[in-house]
Amino acid sequence: MTPKIVQTYNALKSAGKAFEVIFATSDNDEHSFKEYYAEMPWLAFPWKDGRIDELSELYEVEGTPTFVSPLRSTNLTFSVIFRNRKE
């Protein structure tokens, strides 16, 4: 999954699209988080950041990976792109 997202991310950034991906980990240990995040060109919340739990609750995250796209930065309207997808 991550290589496909990285490829899409890089293509959109190269095309000048205004967006950002922010990784919110559910890893149980910091080493696993750092190892997995090393493959990613985007931003991430620090491991064990309290905002991760808040976002998981807000967007009803029940498993990984879940990809959420807020539609506006001024309200809580959002779209869940996919949940628990492994491909």
Automatic annotation (TrEMBL):
InterPro entries xrefs: Nucleoredoxin-like, Thioredoxin-like_fold, Thioredoxin-like_sf
A Pfam family reported for this protein in Swiss-Prot or TrEMBL: Thioredoxin_8
GO MF term list: protein-disulfide reductase [NAD(P)H] activity
Thioredoxin-like fold domain span: 2-68
Top enzyme category: oxidoreductase
Keywords annotated in UniProt: NAD, Oxidoreductase, Repeat
EC number(s) given by UniProt: 1.8.1.8
Catalysed transformations (reactions): [protein]-dithiol + NAD(+) = [protein]-disulfide + NADH + H(+); [protein]-dithiol + NADP(+) = [protein]-disulfide + NADPH + H(+)
Record PANTHER family: THIOREDOXIN (PTHR13871), THIOREDOXIN DOMAIN-CONTAINING PROTEIN (PTHR13871:SF96)
Name this protein carries in UniProt: protein-disulfide reductase
Organism: Arcella intermedia
